[in-house]
Amino acid sequence: MCLKIKKYFLLLCTFICFNLILMAKPALANKVIVYYFHSSQRCSNCLKIEKWSKELIEKNFQEEIQNQKVVYKVLNTDEKPNKIYLKKYNLYTKSLVISKINNKNQETNWKNLEKIWLNLSDEKAFKNYINKEIESFL
Fold this sequence. Notes:
This protein is an alpha+beta fold. The protein contains 5 helices and 4 strands; from the N terminus they run αβααβαββα. The protein has one domain (31-137): Glutaredoxin (3-Layer(aba) Sandwich), CATH 3.40.30.10. The chain has helices at 2-23, 44-60, 62-66, 84-88, 123-137; strands at residues 31-38, 70-76, 95-101, 107-112. α2 (44-60) packs across α5 (123-137). The chain starts with a helix and ends with a helix.
């Protein structure tokens, strides 16, 4: 009798554990979103910021992009759904913003990379600045 109870108990425990594993949701990973915000009016410097930032991210963060730990988004703030970001990030001009998202899909930190404007005459310095800032958020 005792052996039968042990077998049923073991079977029950196995069934419960198996169902818990199946029902468990995978945890979302932390990620960094790099936003490039622009308006409909685009100058050569605005296009340069987009080009250089995209090149850097695609080259230096390939693995993070594949694992969705780094996401690059280009958004036009003149479009109605994107106007929210003007106030959220206190934007007054074209901007590159890094946002840290936790595993609950909540923004925990962000930074407007205002120094991009100081490095527009030096591609290497521009990319080094962005790279350092992204790495500090990872």
